[in-house]
Amino acid sequence: MSRLLDIKNLSVSFVSGEETVRAVTDVSFDLCEDEVLTLVGETGCGKSIIAHAISGLLPPEALVSGEIRYKEKDLQSIPEEERVLLRGCEIGIVLQNPSRALNPLYTIGHQIRETILRHTEKSKEESNRMVAGALRRMGFSDPGIEMKRYPFESSGGMNQRFVIASSTILSPDLLIADEPTTGLDRSRIQDVITEFERIMEEEEMAIILITHDLAVARRLADRIGIMYAGEVVEMGDANRIFEEPYHPYTKGLFGSLPENGCVPIPGVSPPMSRIVSGCRFHPRCGKRTAVCERDHPQLGMIDDRYVRCHLCHSQ
């Protein structure tokens, strides 16, 4: 598989008054065609900021450094007009908050159809058939009725499924899905998973899936990246990491699952404006040593994955 996306040393900060919020620090990864990479971690760890950075949807005040290359194009240097054309056609985006993606003044059918008409030469009739098919795959039994709805007439979960249908309808090369199952009940989560599995089976689409639902991540991911306090702390083959996590935070995250006894990780994540010295996880880690409190660990290869941990690298 050829490389589709290459991110090197991505950092994103925001200045708020006298404080600097370091939302993402020195994140690097690549993504190949037809590969699913899942980013997981606690709320506020920087997952969504990465999605917005790739999509070009960060606010103007964001301070961004590093490289984001898509098909060898530097996305941070291309004109905004070109980036807008990429979004919706080659790069599909499912935002965590569907209200940001849907215009309350237009029907659902109109908005999804416009995605097709803007980027293809298909007729309105052909576009309507495509919209109906996409909505049917998302679990809507009567697409004709749903196409006539306005966003304010639908629940948040329904609007999320409309956004997923719109984002995938043109089979983009890259789909960025930020918490696509948020606000859905279990049956609708299954509809979303089924659609993602269909995409993985039938289409050559790379996917970055951002989720807090570890069950969804385990079912869909080829690779998984565990994030904590703006950094990747472990990344590698999803099956191997679920079978044998290395980083203490990854172990704690998996230990909080119901099937593992719902054991919580003690403490809370550090505020991103006041990052602790040494390892960012050390205040919550039961195995910390003096070096963990003093020196910041680098992300390095151990066996079959990357890990950011002094303890793991010393064993």
Automatic annotation (TrEMBL):
It is a peripheral membrane protein. It is found in: Cell membrane. Residues 7-254 form the ABC transporter domain. It holds the Pfam family oligo_HPY. GO terms for molecular function: ABC-type nickel transporter activity; ATP binding; ATP hydrolysis activity. Its main location: membrane. Keywords: ATP-binding, Cell membrane, Ion transport, Membrane, Nucleotide-binding, Translocase, Transport. It comes from the Archaea. GO terms for biological process: peptide transport. Coiled coil: none annotated. It catalyses: Ni(2+)(out) + ATP + H2O = Ni(2+)(in) + ADP + phosphate + H(+). Its EC number is 7.2.2.11. GO terms for cellular component: plasma membrane. Signal peptide: none annotated. InterPro entries: AAA+_ATPase, ABC_Ni/Peptide_Import, ABC_transporter-like_ATP-bd, Oligopep_ABC_C, P-loop_NTPase. The complex is composed of two ATP-binding proteins (NikD and NikE), two transmembrane proteins (NikB and NikC) and a solute-binding protein (NikA). This is Nickel import system ATP-binding protein NikD. It comes from Methanocalculus chunghsingensis.
